[in-house]
Design a protein that fits this description.
The chain has 474 residues and is of the alpha+beta class. The chain has 2 domains: 204 residues, Metalloenzyme, LuxS/M16 peptidase-like (Cytochrome Bc1 Complex, Chain A, domain 1); 211 residues, Metalloenzyme, LuxS/M16 peptidase-like (Cytochrome Bc1 Complex, Chain A, domain 1), CATH 3.30.830.10. It contains 19 helices and 12 strands. The strands form 2 sheets. The protein has a 6-stranded mixed sheet with strand order 1-2-6-3-5-4, sandwiched between helices. Strands 7, 8, 9, 10, 11 and 12 form a 6-stranded mixed sheet that branches. A hairpin with a 4-residue loop joins β10 and β11. α3 crosses α6. The protein is globular, with a radius of gyration of 25 Å. The protein starts with a helix and ends with a helix. Keywords: Hydrolase, Metalloprotease, Protease, Signal, Zinc.
Length: 474
Amino acid sequence: MPSPTRHSLLACLLSLIGVSAMASEPSLETLAAPLYQLEQQLSRHELDNGMSLYLLVLPNKQSVALSSQFAVGSRNELEGESGYAHLFEHMLFKGSENAPGDSYGQTMSANSGYFNASTFFDATNYYVNLPSQALELALWLESDRFIRPQLSDETVRNQQQTVLEEMATTIDNQPYIRPAMTFLLNQVKGSPYGHAVIGSVDDVSAATPASLNRFHHDFYRPDAMQLAIVGDLPSQTFSWVEQYFGSWQKPKRPLAHFSPLAVERQPVRGEIVDSRGPWPGLMLAWHTVGALHPDAAAITLVEDYLLQNRTSMLEQMNLKAPDTLLHYSVPLSMEHLGVMNLILVPRAKVSLDDLSQRITGMVDTLASQGVTPLELDQLKRRWLLTQLSKLDNDVSLANLLSASQQRDREHPLTAPWERIAAVTQEDIKRVTQYYLSQGYVRLDLLPPWYIRWGKAILEWLPEGLSDSLEEKVL
Protein backbone atom coordinates (compact mmCIF):
# COMPACT_ATOMS: atom_id res chain seq x y z
CA MET A 1 0.00 0.00 0.00
CA PRO A 2 1.56 3.38 -0.95
CA SER A 3 2.31 5.84 1.81
CA PRO A 4 0.05 8.91 2.18
CA THR A 5 2.88 11.15 0.88
CA ARG A 6 3.39 9.01 -2.20
CA HIS A 7 -0.35 8.83 -2.79
CA SER A 8 -0.69 12.62 -2.54
CA LEU A 9 2.08 13.13 -5.09
CA LEU A 10 0.52 10.53 -7.38
CA ALA A 11 -2.88 12.21 -7.06
CA CYS A 12 -1.37 15.58 -7.97
CA LEU A 13 0.35 14.14 -11.04
CA LEU A 14 -2.79 12.33 -12.16
CA SER A 15 -4.81 15.48 -11.61
CA LEU A 16 -2.45 17.46 -13.84
CA ILE A 17 -2.45 14.74 -16.47
CA GLY A 18 -6.22 14.56 -16.13
CA VAL A 19 -6.61 18.23 -17.05
CA SER A 20 -5.04 17.46 -20.41
CA ALA A 21 -6.85 14.13 -20.85
CA MET A 22 -10.26 15.56 -20.00
CA ALA A 23 -9.66 18.56 -22.22
CA SER A 24 -9.49 16.25 -25.24
CA GLU A 25 -12.83 14.63 -24.33
CA PRO A 26 -16.27 16.22 -24.34
CA SER A 27 -17.28 17.60 -20.97
CA LEU A 28 -19.76 15.65 -18.88
CA GLU A 29 -22.32 18.40 -19.51
CA THR A 30 -21.87 18.03 -23.27
CA LEU A 31 -22.00 14.25 -23.02
CA ALA A 32 -25.22 14.38 -20.99
CA ALA A 33 -26.98 16.74 -23.43
CA PRO A 34 -28.85 13.93 -25.29
CA LEU A 35 -30.59 12.97 -22.03
CA TYR A 36 -31.97 16.47 -21.62
CA GLN A 37 -32.88 16.78 -25.30
CA LEU A 38 -34.74 13.48 -25.38
CA GLU A 39 -36.52 14.20 -22.11
CA GLN A 40 -37.97 17.38 -23.62
CA GLN A 41 -39.71 15.21 -26.23
CA LEU A 42 -41.22 12.99 -23.56
CA SER A 43 -44.85 13.35 -22.47
CA ARG A 44 -46.08 11.97 -19.16
CA HIS A 45 -49.71 11.26 -18.28
CA GLU A 46 -51.62 9.79 -15.41
CA LEU A 47 -54.99 8.15 -15.95
CA ASP A 48 -57.83 8.73 -13.50
CA ASN A 49 -57.24 5.28 -12.03
CA GLY A 50 -53.63 6.16 -11.12
CA MET A 51 -51.87 4.36 -13.96
CA SER A 52 -48.73 6.22 -15.15
CA LEU A 53 -47.89 6.57 -18.83
CA TYR A 54 -44.84 7.81 -20.76
CA LEU A 55 -45.10 8.48 -24.50
CA LEU A 56 -42.00 9.17 -26.58
CA VAL A 57 -42.24 9.70 -30.33
CA LEU A 58 -39.02 8.80 -32.13
CA PRO A 59 -38.64 9.92 -35.75
CA ASN A 60 -37.57 7.57 -38.52
CA LYS A 61 -38.90 4.53 -36.72
CA GLN A 62 -41.31 1.90 -38.01
CA SER A 63 -41.78 0.01 -34.78
CA VAL A 64 -42.90 0.58 -31.20
CA ALA A 65 -41.71 -0.77 -27.88
CA LEU A 66 -44.04 -1.13 -24.89
CA SER A 67 -42.74 -1.69 -21.39
CA SER A 68 -45.09 -2.26 -18.46
CA GLN A 69 -43.64 -2.31 -14.97
CA PHE A 70 -45.69 -3.28 -11.92
CA ALA A 71 -44.66 -2.46 -8.36
CA VAL A 72 -44.98 -6.09 -7.37
CA GLY A 73 -42.20 -8.58 -6.79
CA SER A 74 -41.08 -11.23 -4.36
CA ARG A 75 -41.19 -8.74 -1.47
CA ASN A 76 -45.01 -8.78 -1.77
CA GLU A 77 -45.23 -12.54 -1.22
CA LEU A 78 -46.72 -13.90 1.98
CA GLU A 79 -45.28 -16.82 3.93
CA GLY A 80 -45.90 -20.02 1.98
CA GLU A 81 -46.18 -18.13 -1.32
CA SER A 82 -42.53 -17.63 -2.24
CA GLY A 83 -42.07 -17.63 -6.00
CA TYR A 84 -45.64 -16.44 -6.70
CA ALA A 85 -44.59 -13.21 -8.41
CA HIS A 86 -42.34 -15.11 -10.81
CA LEU A 87 -44.88 -17.90 -11.37
CA PHE A 88 -47.63 -15.37 -12.05
CA GLU A 89 -45.39 -13.63 -14.58
CA HIS A 90 -45.32 -16.95 -16.48
CA MET A 91 -49.10 -17.28 -16.21
CA LEU A 92 -49.71 -13.95 -17.92
CA PHE A 93 -48.46 -15.42 -21.18
CA LYS A 94 -50.90 -18.34 -20.99
CA GLY A 95 -54.37 -16.99 -21.48
CA SER A 96 -56.76 -14.14 -20.77
CA GLU A 97 -60.49 -13.62 -21.15
CA ASN A 98 -60.37 -12.61 -24.83
CA ALA A 99 -57.11 -14.32 -25.79
CA PRO A 100 -57.22 -17.83 -24.31
CA GLY A 101 -54.39 -20.35 -24.19
CA ASP A 102 -51.37 -19.45 -26.28
CA SER A 103 -53.21 -16.76 -28.27
CA TYR A 104 -50.99 -13.99 -26.92
CA GLY A 105 -47.73 -15.50 -28.11
CA GLN A 106 -49.21 -16.66 -31.42
CA THR A 107 -50.68 -13.24 -32.17
CA MET A 108 -47.47 -11.41 -31.30
CA SER A 109 -45.40 -13.79 -33.42
CA ALA A 110 -47.82 -13.43 -36.33
CA ASN A 111 -47.24 -9.66 -36.14
CA SER A 112 -43.43 -10.01 -36.05
CA GLY A 113 -43.31 -9.01 -32.41
CA TYR A 114 -40.98 -10.26 -29.73
CA PHE A 115 -41.71 -10.17 -26.03
CA ASN A 116 -40.41 -11.19 -22.64
CA ALA A 117 -40.68 -10.44 -18.94
CA SER A 118 -38.65 -10.45 -15.74
CA THR A 119 -39.36 -10.54 -12.00
CA PHE A 120 -37.24 -9.05 -9.25
CA PHE A 121 -37.64 -8.29 -5.55
CA ASP A 122 -39.43 -4.97 -6.09
CA ALA A 123 -41.04 -5.16 -9.52
CA THR A 124 -42.19 -7.23 -12.48
CA ASN A 125 -41.57 -5.98 -16.01
CA TYR A 126 -43.22 -6.98 -19.29
CA TYR A 127 -42.10 -5.71 -22.67
CA VAL A 128 -42.95 -6.16 -26.33
CA ASN A 129 -41.51 -4.75 -29.56
CA LEU A 130 -43.50 -4.89 -32.79
CA PRO A 131 -44.39 -2.92 -35.95
CA SER A 132 -46.20 0.33 -35.23
CA GLN A 133 -49.31 -0.68 -37.19
CA ALA A 134 -49.93 -3.38 -34.57
CA LEU A 135 -49.82 -1.00 -31.59
CA GLU A 136 -53.56 -0.91 -30.94
CA LEU A 137 -53.72 -4.70 -31.06
CA ALA A 138 -50.82 -4.91 -28.62
CA LEU A 139 -52.49 -2.50 -26.17
CA TRP A 140 -55.69 -4.53 -26.31
CA LEU A 141 -53.79 -7.76 -25.63
CA GLU A 142 -51.73 -6.22 -22.83
CA SER A 143 -54.77 -4.79 -21.09
CA ASP A 144 -56.69 -8.05 -21.40
CA ARG A 145 -54.00 -10.18 -19.79
CA PHE A 146 -53.15 -7.66 -17.08
CA ILE A 147 -56.78 -7.01 -16.12
CA ARG A 148 -58.51 -10.31 -16.99
CA PRO A 149 -56.07 -13.26 -16.83
CA GLN A 150 -57.59 -16.74 -17.06
CA LEU A 151 -55.91 -19.39 -14.93
CA SER A 152 -56.91 -23.02 -15.29
CA ASP A 153 -55.69 -26.09 -13.43
CA GLU A 154 -53.92 -27.27 -16.58
CA THR A 155 -52.05 -24.03 -17.30
CA VAL A 156 -51.01 -23.68 -13.64
CA ARG A 157 -49.62 -27.23 -13.66
CA ASN A 158 -47.77 -26.61 -16.91
CA GLN A 159 -46.17 -23.39 -15.70
CA GLN A 160 -45.34 -24.87 -12.32
CA GLN A 161 -43.39 -27.54 -14.17
CA THR A 162 -41.66 -24.90 -16.31
CA VAL A 163 -40.63 -22.87 -13.25
CA LEU A 164 -39.48 -25.96 -11.34
CA GLU A 165 -37.34 -27.01 -14.31
CA GLU A 166 -35.87 -23.50 -14.45
CA MET A 167 -35.23 -23.66 -10.71
CA ALA A 168 -33.47 -27.00 -11.01
CA THR A 169 -31.35 -26.01 -14.01
CA THR A 170 -30.17 -22.62 -12.80
CA ILE A 171 -30.08 -23.15 -9.03
CA ASP A 172 -30.64 -26.52 -7.43
CA ASN A 173 -28.59 -28.64 -9.83
CA GLN A 174 -25.63 -26.25 -9.65
CA PRO A 175 -23.02 -26.62 -6.92
CA TYR A 176 -23.16 -24.10 -4.08
CA ILE A 177 -25.92 -21.88 -5.58
CA ARG A 178 -28.99 -22.65 -3.42
CA PRO A 179 -27.21 -22.84 -0.03
CA ALA A 180 -25.12 -19.74 -0.82
CA MET A 181 -28.22 -17.80 -1.85
CA THR A 182 -30.03 -18.93 1.30
CA PHE A 183 -27.06 -17.94 3.48
CA LEU A 184 -26.93 -14.46 1.98
CA LEU A 185 -30.69 -13.89 2.21
CA ASN A 186 -30.68 -15.12 5.81
CA GLN A 187 -28.71 -12.00 6.70
CA VAL A 188 -32.01 -10.10 6.24
CA LYS A 189 -34.31 -12.94 7.29
CA GLY A 190 -37.73 -11.76 8.38
CA SER A 191 -37.66 -8.79 6.01
CA PRO A 192 -39.48 -8.61 2.64
CA TYR A 193 -36.11 -9.35 0.99
CA GLY A 194 -35.42 -12.45 3.06
CA HIS A 195 -36.32 -15.08 0.45
CA ALA A 196 -35.34 -15.84 -3.13
CA VAL A 197 -37.26 -14.37 -6.07
CA ILE A 198 -37.62 -17.77 -7.68
CA GLY A 199 -39.12 -19.20 -4.47
CA SER A 200 -39.00 -22.69 -3.02
CA VAL A 201 -39.98 -25.98 -4.62
CA ASP A 202 -42.68 -26.57 -2.00
CA ASP A 203 -44.34 -23.15 -2.33
CA VAL A 204 -44.34 -23.14 -6.14
CA SER A 205 -45.68 -26.71 -6.22
CA ALA A 206 -48.52 -25.81 -3.82
CA ALA A 207 -49.84 -22.87 -5.90
CA THR A 208 -53.40 -23.15 -7.23
CA PRO A 209 -55.50 -21.08 -9.64
CA ALA A 210 -57.36 -19.69 -6.62
CA SER A 211 -54.20 -18.62 -4.76
CA LEU A 212 -52.66 -17.09 -7.90
CA ASN A 213 -55.89 -15.26 -8.72
CA ARG A 214 -55.80 -13.84 -5.20
CA PHE A 215 -52.22 -12.70 -5.80
CA HIS A 216 -53.37 -10.96 -9.00
CA HIS A 217 -56.31 -9.32 -7.24
CA ASP A 218 -54.13 -8.02 -4.42
CA PHE A 219 -51.17 -6.68 -6.36
CA TYR A 220 -51.97 -6.14 -10.05
CA ARG A 221 -53.72 -2.78 -10.05
CA PRO A 222 -53.55 0.31 -12.27
CA ASP A 223 -51.89 2.56 -9.69
CA ALA A 224 -49.07 -0.01 -9.39
CA MET A 225 -48.41 0.09 -13.16
CA GLN A 226 -46.12 2.33 -15.18
CA LEU A 227 -46.36 1.99 -18.97
CA ALA A 228 -43.85 3.43 -21.45
CA ILE A 229 -44.44 3.44 -25.21
CA VAL A 230 -41.53 4.44 -27.44
CA GLY A 231 -41.12 4.66 -31.22
CA ASP A 232 -43.39 5.44 -34.17
CA LEU A 233 -46.51 6.40 -32.21
CA PRO A 234 -49.78 7.11 -34.06
CA SER A 235 -51.67 10.22 -32.97
CA GLN A 236 -54.37 8.02 -31.38
CA THR A 237 -51.94 6.33 -28.97
CA PHE A 238 -53.09 8.12 -25.82
CA SER A 239 -56.78 7.60 -26.62
CA TRP A 240 -56.11 3.88 -27.17
CA VAL A 241 -54.41 3.62 -23.77
CA GLU A 242 -57.40 5.33 -22.14
CA GLN A 243 -59.80 3.08 -24.04
CA TYR A 244 -58.17 -0.18 -23.00
CA PHE A 245 -56.84 0.68 -19.53
CA GLY A 246 -59.03 3.56 -18.34
CA SER A 247 -61.89 1.39 -17.08
CA TRP A 248 -59.57 -0.64 -14.84
CA GLN A 249 -60.73 0.26 -11.34
CA LYS A 250 -58.24 1.23 -8.66
CA PRO A 251 -58.86 -0.66 -5.39
CA LYS A 252 -59.79 1.36 -2.31
CA ARG A 253 -57.04 -0.22 -0.23
CA PRO A 254 -53.69 1.61 -0.38
CA LEU A 255 -50.65 0.28 -2.16
CA ALA A 256 -48.29 -1.87 -0.12
CA HIS A 257 -45.72 0.22 1.75
CA PHE A 258 -42.15 -0.85 2.51
CA SER A 259 -39.57 0.81 4.72
CA PRO A 260 -35.76 0.88 4.54
CA LEU A 261 -34.06 -2.01 6.30
CA ALA A 262 -31.90 -1.44 9.34
CA VAL A 263 -28.91 -3.69 8.61
CA GLU A 264 -26.24 -4.30 11.23
CA ARG A 265 -22.90 -4.16 9.43
CA GLN A 266 -20.58 -6.56 11.20
CA PRO A 267 -18.30 -9.41 10.12
CA VAL A 268 -20.19 -12.64 9.35
CA ARG A 269 -18.48 -15.85 8.28
CA GLY A 270 -19.81 -19.20 7.17
CA GLU A 271 -18.95 -22.18 5.01
CA ILE A 272 -20.76 -24.60 2.73
CA VAL A 273 -19.47 -28.06 1.83
CA ASP A 274 -20.99 -29.37 -1.40
CA SER A 275 -20.17 -32.85 -2.64
CA ARG A 276 -20.69 -31.62 -6.23
CA GLY A 277 -18.23 -28.74 -5.85
CA PRO A 278 -15.41 -28.98 -8.40
CA TRP A 279 -13.09 -26.49 -6.65
CA PRO A 280 -13.13 -24.11 -3.67
CA GLY A 281 -14.68 -20.68 -4.04
CA LEU A 282 -15.26 -17.56 -2.00
CA MET A 283 -18.29 -15.32 -1.75
CA LEU A 284 -17.94 -11.87 -0.22
CA ALA A 285 -20.86 -9.50 0.30
CA TRP A 286 -21.31 -6.03 1.74
CA HIS A 287 -24.66 -4.52 2.76
CA THR A 288 -24.87 -1.09 1.15
CA VAL A 289 -28.04 0.97 0.58
CA GLY A 290 -31.24 0.76 -1.41
CA ALA A 291 -31.82 2.60 -4.66
CA LEU A 292 -33.88 5.29 -2.91
CA HIS A 293 -31.17 6.16 -0.38
CA PRO A 294 -29.26 9.47 -0.74
CA ASP A 295 -25.95 7.52 -0.86
CA ALA A 296 -27.06 5.19 -3.67
CA ALA A 297 -25.34 7.17 -6.45
CA ALA A 298 -22.00 7.21 -4.61
CA ILE A 299 -22.27 3.48 -3.91
CA THR A 300 -22.89 2.84 -7.62
CA LEU A 301 -19.61 4.57 -8.49
CA VAL A 302 -17.75 2.76 -5.69
CA GLU A 303 -18.95 -0.61 -6.99
CA ASP A 304 -17.82 0.35 -10.48
CA TYR A 305 -14.40 1.49 -9.25
CA LEU A 306 -13.80 -1.64 -7.19
CA LEU A 307 -15.39 -4.41 -9.22
CA GLN A 308 -17.44 -3.58 -12.26
CA ASN A 309 -15.26 -2.63 -15.21
CA ARG A 310 -12.05 -3.57 -17.01
CA THR A 311 -10.09 -0.86 -15.19
CA SER A 312 -11.49 -1.71 -11.74
CA MET A 313 -9.18 -2.30 -8.79
CA LEU A 314 -10.12 -5.99 -8.93
CA GLU A 315 -9.10 -6.33 -12.57
CA GLN A 316 -5.86 -4.42 -12.02
CA MET A 317 -5.00 -6.59 -9.03
CA ASN A 318 -5.57 -9.75 -11.04
CA LEU A 319 -3.58 -8.48 -14.03
CA LYS A 320 -0.53 -7.77 -11.90
CA ALA A 321 -0.63 -11.09 -10.05
CA PRO A 322 -3.28 -13.51 -11.31
CA ASP A 323 -4.96 -14.85 -8.19
CA THR A 324 -8.25 -16.15 -9.58
CA LEU A 325 -9.42 -18.57 -12.21
CA LEU A 326 -12.76 -16.78 -12.24
CA HIS A 327 -14.37 -13.79 -10.58
CA TYR A 328 -17.65 -12.03 -11.13
CA SER A 329 -19.91 -9.59 -9.38
CA VAL A 330 -23.61 -8.80 -9.86
CA PRO A 331 -24.60 -6.06 -7.39
CA LEU A 332 -28.15 -6.25 -6.09
CA SER A 333 -30.00 -2.95 -5.90
CA MET A 334 -33.47 -3.04 -4.44
CA GLU A 335 -35.50 -0.03 -3.32
CA HIS A 336 -34.60 -0.45 0.34
CA LEU A 337 -31.57 -2.74 0.34
CA GLY A 338 -28.33 -2.97 -1.59
CA VAL A 339 -25.75 -5.74 -1.67
CA MET A 340 -22.32 -5.50 -3.26
CA ASN A 341 -21.11 -9.03 -3.85
CA LEU A 342 -18.18 -10.84 -5.34
CA ILE A 343 -17.61 -14.51 -6.23
CA LEU A 344 -14.01 -15.64 -6.60
CA VAL A 345 -12.48 -18.98 -7.62
CA PRO A 346 -8.79 -19.01 -6.60
CA ARG A 347 -5.75 -20.31 -8.39
CA ALA A 348 -4.21 -23.42 -6.84
CA LYS A 349 -1.41 -21.43 -5.18
CA VAL A 350 -3.84 -18.95 -3.53
CA SER A 351 -5.81 -19.74 -0.40
CA LEU A 352 -9.27 -18.41 0.39
CA ASP A 353 -7.78 -16.44 3.30
CA ASP A 354 -5.27 -14.81 0.93
CA LEU A 355 -8.03 -13.85 -1.47
CA SER A 356 -10.20 -12.42 1.28
CA GLN A 357 -7.33 -10.34 2.66
CA ARG A 358 -6.44 -8.95 -0.75
CA ILE A 359 -10.02 -7.89 -1.45
CA THR A 360 -10.48 -6.29 1.95
CA GLY A 361 -7.12 -4.58 1.49
CA MET A 362 -8.40 -3.19 -1.78
CA VAL A 363 -11.47 -1.81 0.00
CA ASP A 364 -9.32 -0.35 2.78
CA THR A 365 -7.15 1.41 0.20
CA LEU A 366 -10.15 3.10 -1.34
CA ALA A 367 -11.54 4.00 2.09
CA SER A 368 -8.30 5.69 3.11
CA GLN A 369 -7.12 7.21 -0.18
CA GLY A 370 -10.30 7.74 -2.19
CA VAL A 371 -10.16 8.55 -5.90
CA THR A 372 -8.46 11.28 -7.91
CA PRO A 373 -10.45 13.94 -9.81
CA LEU A 374 -9.60 12.16 -13.06
CA GLU A 375 -10.78 8.80 -11.72
CA LEU A 376 -14.05 10.32 -10.50
CA ASP A 377 -14.59 11.95 -13.88
CA GLN A 378 -14.02 8.63 -15.63
CA LEU A 379 -16.44 6.85 -13.29
CA LYS A 380 -19.17 9.37 -14.07
CA ARG A 381 -18.33 9.20 -17.76
CA ARG A 382 -18.69 5.41 -17.82
CA TRP A 383 -22.04 5.58 -16.02
CA LEU A 384 -23.24 8.20 -18.47
CA LEU A 385 -22.11 6.27 -21.54
CA THR A 386 -23.95 3.20 -20.26
CA GLN A 387 -27.16 5.24 -19.93
CA LEU A 388 -26.69 6.80 -23.37
CA SER A 389 -26.28 3.35 -24.91
CA LYS A 390 -29.83 2.53 -23.76
CA LEU A 391 -31.19 5.40 -25.84
CA ASP A 392 -30.23 3.59 -29.05
CA ASN A 393 -32.45 0.59 -28.32
CA ASP A 394 -36.21 1.13 -28.17
CA VAL A 395 -36.84 -1.70 -25.72
CA SER A 396 -34.01 -0.63 -23.40
CA LEU A 397 -35.30 2.93 -23.47
CA ALA A 398 -38.89 1.87 -22.78
CA ASN A 399 -37.70 -0.35 -19.91
CA LEU A 400 -35.67 2.54 -18.49
CA LEU A 401 -38.72 4.82 -18.52
CA SER A 402 -41.15 2.29 -17.09
CA ALA A 403 -38.74 1.55 -14.23
CA SER A 404 -38.27 5.21 -13.25
CA GLN A 405 -38.60 5.95 -9.56
CA GLN A 406 -41.53 7.89 -8.14
CA ARG A 407 -39.26 10.83 -7.27
CA ASP A 408 -37.98 10.96 -10.88
CA ARG A 409 -41.30 10.79 -12.70
CA GLU A 410 -41.02 14.35 -14.01
CA HIS A 411 -37.38 13.86 -15.06
CA PRO A 412 -36.83 10.12 -15.53
CA LEU A 413 -33.75 10.45 -17.75
CA THR A 414 -31.90 13.38 -16.19
CA ALA A 415 -32.61 13.11 -12.45
CA PRO A 416 -30.57 9.88 -12.02
CA TRP A 417 -27.70 11.47 -13.92
CA GLU A 418 -27.77 14.60 -11.77
CA ARG A 419 -27.42 12.47 -8.64
CA ILE A 420 -24.38 10.75 -10.17
CA ALA A 421 -22.94 14.11 -11.28
CA ALA A 422 -23.24 15.46 -7.74
CA VAL A 423 -21.05 12.73 -6.19
CA THR A 424 -17.80 14.14 -4.77
CA GLN A 425 -14.42 12.64 -3.91
CA GLU A 426 -15.34 12.97 -0.25
CA ASP A 427 -18.57 11.04 -0.88
CA ILE A 428 -16.57 8.14 -2.34
CA LYS A 429 -14.34 7.91 0.74
CA ARG A 430 -17.22 8.41 3.17
CA VAL A 431 -19.51 5.70 1.80
CA THR A 432 -16.64 3.24 1.44
CA GLN A 433 -15.66 3.78 5.06
CA TYR A 434 -19.23 3.60 6.37
CA TYR A 435 -20.77 0.80 4.29
CA LEU A 436 -17.82 -1.38 3.29
CA SER A 437 -15.19 -1.06 6.03
CA GLN A 438 -17.41 -1.85 9.00
CA GLY A 439 -17.96 -5.50 8.21
CA TYR A 440 -18.77 -7.93 5.44
CA VAL A 441 -20.19 -11.37 4.85
CA ARG A 442 -17.72 -14.09 3.96
CA LEU A 443 -18.88 -17.50 2.79
CA ASP A 444 -16.38 -20.23 1.92
CA LEU A 445 -17.62 -22.56 -0.83
CA LEU A 446 -15.92 -25.88 -0.25
CA PRO A 447 -15.79 -29.05 -2.40
CA PRO A 448 -15.34 -32.60 -1.02
CA TRP A 449 -12.40 -33.20 1.33
CA TYR A 450 -10.18 -34.86 -1.25
CA ILE A 451 -10.34 -31.84 -3.57
CA ARG A 452 -9.57 -29.52 -0.66
CA TRP A 453 -6.69 -31.77 0.34
CA GLY A 454 -5.29 -31.75 -3.20
CA LYS A 455 -5.50 -27.98 -3.43
CA ALA A 456 -3.76 -27.59 -0.06
CA ILE A 457 -0.82 -29.60 -1.45
CA LEU A 458 -0.71 -27.39 -4.58
CA GLU A 459 -0.51 -24.28 -2.38
CA TRP A 460 2.80 -25.52 -0.96
CA LEU A 461 4.43 -26.44 -4.28
CA PRO A 462 6.66 -24.05 -6.27
CA GLU A 463 4.60 -21.65 -8.40
CA GLY A 464 5.51 -23.04 -11.83
CA LEU A 465 4.85 -26.63 -10.77
CA SER A 466 1.56 -25.77 -9.06
CA ASP A 467 0.36 -23.90 -12.18
CA SER A 468 1.19 -26.88 -14.39
CA LEU A 469 -0.59 -29.36 -12.10
CA GLU A 470 -3.53 -26.98 -11.70
CA GLU A 471 -4.13 -27.01 -15.46
CA LYS A 472 -4.07 -30.79 -15.54
CA VAL A 473 -6.38 -31.13 -12.53
CA LEU A 474 -8.94 -28.63 -13.80
